[in-house]
Specification:
By secondary structure, this protein is of the alpha/beta class. 42% of the residues lie in helices and 15% in strands.
Length: 133
C-alpha cells in the first residue's frame, strides 16, 4: 500500500513538472531576444506602443496592438506560437506579458529594456508607416 502511494505521488510530480516545463514566461534581454528570433522564425512579435511610436521605429515583422487594445484584440494573438512582447523600455510590455501569461499563453517573452535597449545594441530596426495586418 505504501509503495503504491509513493508511485502515485511520484507520477503526479512528473506530470506537474512536465506541465510547468511546457509553459514559458520570462523576461529576456536584447541579446537573448535576438538569438531567439534567429533560431525560431515562428516567433510572433507584438509591439504594444502607439502607432506614432511604431512609425518612428519598430522591429521588422512586428504586429502593432497598442496596450490599450490588447484585451479587445486578444483573439488576434496566436496560442500556438511563441510571443515576444516589446515597447519602448519594457514597462508596458511587462504588463501585457504578465496578462498573456495569466491567460494561459504557453510561451511568452518580454523584451527587457524594450526597443531602446535593442537599438542601443545595434540590432536592426525599421522605420516607416504603421501597416495594420
Amino acid at each position: 500500500m505504501r509503495q503504491s502511494m509513493i508511485i502515485l505521488v511520484a507520477g503526479m510530480l512528473l506530470v506537474l513538472a512536465s506541465l510547468a516545463a511546457a509553459a514559458v514566461a520570462r523576461n529576456i534581454d536584447s541579446p537573448a531576444a535576438f538569438a531567439l528570433l534567429k533560431q525560431r522564425q515562428e516567433v510572433y512579435l507584438l509591439d504594444v506602443r502607439t502607432p506614432q511610436e511604431y512609425q518612428q521605429v519598430h522591429l521588422a515583422g512586428a504586429h502593432l496592438i497598442p496596450i490599450d487594445q490588447v484585451m479587445q484584440r486578444l483573439g488576434e494573438l496566436p496560442r500556438n506560437r511563441p510571443i515576444l512582447v516589446y515597447c519602448a523600455v519594457g514597462s508596458r510590455s511587462a504588463q501585457v506579458f504578465n496578462f498573456l501569461a495569466r491567460r494561459g499563453y504557453p510561451e511568452v517573452y518580454n523584451l527587457d529594456g524594450g526597443i531602446t535597449a535593442w537599438a542601443q545594441r545595434g540590432y536592426p530596426v525599421q522605420q516607416g508607416p504603421w501597416n495594420p495586418r
